[in-house]
Amino acid sequence: MSKGAMNLSKKVEPLPEEFDPKEIVSPVALELNGVLEECAEKKREIVLGRNVHTMCYTISEPEADDDDTGEREAYMASVLARYRKSLIERTKHHLGYPYNLDFDYGALSQLQHFSINNLGDPFIESNYGVHSRQFEVGVLDWFARLWELDKNEYWGYITNCGTEGNLHGILVGREVFPDGILYASRESHYSVFKAAKMYRMECVKVATLVSGEIDCADFERKLLLNKDKPAIVNVNIGTTVKGAVDDLDLVIETLEKTGFSGQFYIHCDGALFGLMMPFVKRAPKVTFKKPIDSVSVSGHKFVGCPMPCGVQITRLKNINVLSNNVEYLASRDATIMGSRNGHAPIFLWYTLNRKGYKGFQKEVQKCLRNAHYLKDRLVEAGVSAMLNELSSTVVLERPKYEDFVRRWQLACEGNIAHVVVMPNVTIEKLDCFLDELIRSRSSWYGDGESRPPCVAADIGEENCCCDEHSKSAN
Amino acid sequence: MSKGAMNLSKKVEPLPEEFDPKEIVSPVALELNGVLEECAEKKREIVLGRNVHTMCYTISEPEADDDDTGEREAYMASVLARYRKSLIERTKHHLGYPYNLDFDYGALSQLQHFSINNLGDPFIESNYGVHSRQFEVGVLDWFARLWELDKNEYWGYITNCGTEGNLHGILVGREVFPDGILYASRESHYSVFKAAKMYRMECVKVATLVSGEIDCADFERKLLLNKDKPAIVNVNIGTTVKGAVDDLDLVIETLEKTGFSGQFYIHCDGALFGLMMPFVKRAPKVTFKKPIDSVSVSGHKFVGCPMPCGVQITRLKNINVLSNNVEYLASRDATIMGSRNGHAPIFLWYTLNRKGYKGFQKEVQKCLRNAHYLKDRLVEAGVSAMLNELSSTVVLERPKYEDFVRRWQLACEGNIAHVVVMPNVTIEKLDCFLDELIRSRSSWYGDGESRPPCVAADIGEENCCCDEHSKSAN
Fold first, then answer.
1. pLDDT tens-digit profile of A115-152?
2. How far is residue B170's CA from residue B190's CA, in Å, rounded to a whole number?
3. How close B125 comes to chain A (CA, Å)?
4. What per-residue confidence (pLDDT) applies to B6?
5. Order of strands across the sheet with B411-413?
6. Is B384 marked active-site?
7. What is the distance between the alpha carbons of residues B372 and A309, in angstroms, rounded to a whole number?
C-alpha cells in the first residue's frame, strides 16, 4: 500500500466538515509512490475480487486559500507531469497489446472542451444537439463498404470496445434464435463466454488446432449432437493470443452439411484482424456476401485511438427483429450502452480519411513484413516461436522473469507470450527487444541448470526449441 | 439525405483500386449539409431500426498527390472548424440533458496523445502499462467515502455511462439471487428494463406517484404476490424525466415488513442525483450503512466530462460471489466491458481534486436555487410546471413546436418537457430561455384557438395551468 493511500483515514468519514486537508499526498509521498510501484513489479500477485490499493493518487479536500496560493494547481500539475513522463516511457516499451500507438490527433484537441455524446441509435437523432453522428455514420459507411454490405442493408454503431461488439453480436443472435446454442472455439476472447453467462445461453466450447483455429471436425461432432436447436456461432478473425483466423468458409460448409442451413447466425469477432484481413492477399474474405450476420472490430487497435472503441456492423433485417418490438429493449435504440462517447467517431473519421483504404493496405503489409522479421530472428536465436500465416502476432516462449514481461508489456498465457506487431512497432524497436531478450536469456539459461520451457503443446513440436524438441529436429 | 451522402455510390464497392477520389465532399456540399440539417429539424421522423442517413461526412479515398497539395488537410480542417462552431452554438442552447458543460480540462490536453486503457479490473494490474488505475482508484475511494463504505469493503470501477452501471448492478444482483425477481418503478431509466431482457430475468414494474417516486403501496402488493422469490430492487435516486427520488427508507421498510429481510438486493440508480443528494439537507441519505448493495452515478453529468462515463460502487462481498468462481465471467475481472477508457478517470480525478466535497456542495446549492427561480417564473407566467423538492429538474408543459424543443435541446415525454438545471445553467441563460418561451407562447396560443396542453395527469392538477385547471384553482 502506498504512503498516499495509507494517509487516507481507515474508517469511513461523514461529509465535508470533517475532512482533513492535510491528507493531501505530499510530493515526498509521490516520490515514494514511484519507488513502491517499481517494487510492486517484482512481487505482484493477482487475486480476483480484492481491491488492493497498490498505488493511488488520493483525492483530498482543497484548502480554503488554495486559490490564492496556487498550491493545489501546482500539486496537480506535478502529478500530471510525472504521469505524462511515465506514459511516454511505457508507450515506448510496449509490444504485447495490439494497440497502434502511433497517432497524432493534435487537430482534434480543440474538441476536448465539448461534452460530445451520441446517445442511443446513430441513425435516430436525439434532442441532445452536442453529438457527432455525422462523423459516426461516415465511419460506419466506410466499414460497411469494406465488408461489402449495402448502405441500405446494414445497421451498426461505434461501440466502447471489442467486448461491447461481441456482447451486441451475440445478443442479436439470441434474439433471432431465442433457443439457439452458442458455439465458440475455446481460444475465443473471454467476452464471448461472458456474454453466454450474462444472457443465460447454452454454450458449447469447440476444440482448436495447434494454430489456434477452430477445429471444424470437433465443431461438426458437436453440431450433430444438437441438431434440434439453431446455432449461434462466434468466428474468430484473429484470436487474442495466437492471432489465429478461423476458416470462415469451412465453418459455413460445416453448418450446411450438418443441416443447419437457415438455422444459424454467425458473429465474426474481428477485434484486430477484421480490419487487417481485407488487405491480406490469400486471406479468406470477411464479407457479408457470405451468410454472416455481424462483424465487430476494435477501433483503438489497428486504427489507433486515444481511448478504446470499436465498430459493430450487422444486417439491418436482424435489427428489425429487435425493433419490430419496440418494447423489447424498452428504449429507442438497439445499442448496448445508452450514452456513447462522441469523440471516438471523430478520431476514427479523421484517421480513415487521412489514410484511406490504400494507406491501411500499406500499413498491413509493413506489419506482416516486420512480424516475419521478428519471427525469423527469434528462430535464428533458438527461441521457440510461431507466426500464423495471416497474422502479425508472433507467439514465443514466455520470458523467464516477470520484470522482463512487464517492461515490454507482453501478454502471457501459460508458457507462451506474444508480441503484436502494430504500425508503430518498427524494426529498430524489434531489434532493441531482440537484443535485450537474447542477452537476458543467456543470463537466465547460461548456467545450464535452468532451461527454456517446452512449448510444443502450445505451438507445435516443429516450432518448439526446448532441449528435447530441438534435439529431435537435428 | 444530404448531398454528401448521396455522393456515395449506391452499390457496395470492392476494394481500394475502384475508389473514386472525386467522391470527396466538396465545400459546396458541406454548405448544403448545413442547410439540409436546418430543414431536417422541421420534418424529422423517428423510425426505429432504419438507418436513415440524414447527414454524414463521407470518408473518401485520398488522392495520390494529397500530401503535396495539402488539399485533404485543408478539407478536414474546414469540416472540423465548422463542426466546432456548431458545437459552440449547441452547447450554448442546451437545457434538457443533465450534463454539466462547464469545464476546462486544458491541463489534460497533453494526455490526448496516449492510448490509455484500464483493461479489466481496476484493482488488478494488467501487463498493459499505459493505464490510469492510480487515478481511477483515487476517484473510487472518493465516492466510497461519499457513500460511506469502507475502503476494504467496497469494489467498483469507472464505467462508460450510467447504463453500464445499471447493467452491472443488476447483474451482480442476479448472481447473488439467481432466481430473484427484478422490481423497478415504471419511471425507471430504460436501461433497467433493457437489463432484465438481456439477463432473462423476471421483471415486475411498480406504479409511481404523480411526483414520479415509486408507489410503495403498489410495491408492497407486488412483493406479497411473489414471496417465494428474492427481490432485486432498482431504486431511483432521481428519475430521468421528473428528477423524482424514490424514498429509500420506505422501500427498505416495505421489504422488511413483507418478510424479505436477507432476501433482497438493492441497486441505487443515482445517475444524476447520486452525486447531488449527499449535499442536500433533509434528503434521505444514500449510504451503505443502510442495507443497499450497489450505487451507480454518471460522471459526465454533474461532474462534467468531455465523454460519457460513470462510477459504480458495490459491496466487495457481492463481487466475491462472482469471483469465487473465476470461471463465472471467464475473465480476470468482474466488469461488463473489457477495455476501458483510461482518460475518463483522469478527468474525474482532476475535477474532484479541484472542487472537493465543498465545491460540489456549493454547486448543488446554486443549482437548486436556480431551479426554484425557473419554476417560480414559469408559474408566474402561467406555464404548467413542477419541481420536486430534492431536485433541480424542472418539468413543464411541452412547447408546442418541435423547433423550439430542438433549439433548447429539451428532453420530452408525451405532453411534458424538462429543463435540468446544471452548474453551467446560469440565471442569464434561464432568463433568455424564459423570455423566448413566453414570447413564443403568446404567438402559439394568442389567437385563442389553440390552447396549452393539460398536464394534470403528468404533474398533478395543482401544477397544471391548462384552461380547466387554472379556472378551478381560481
1. 899 888 888 777 788 889 999 999 999 999 999 999 99
2. 13
3. 8
4. 36
5. B385-387, B393-397, B416-420, B411-413
6. no
7. 40
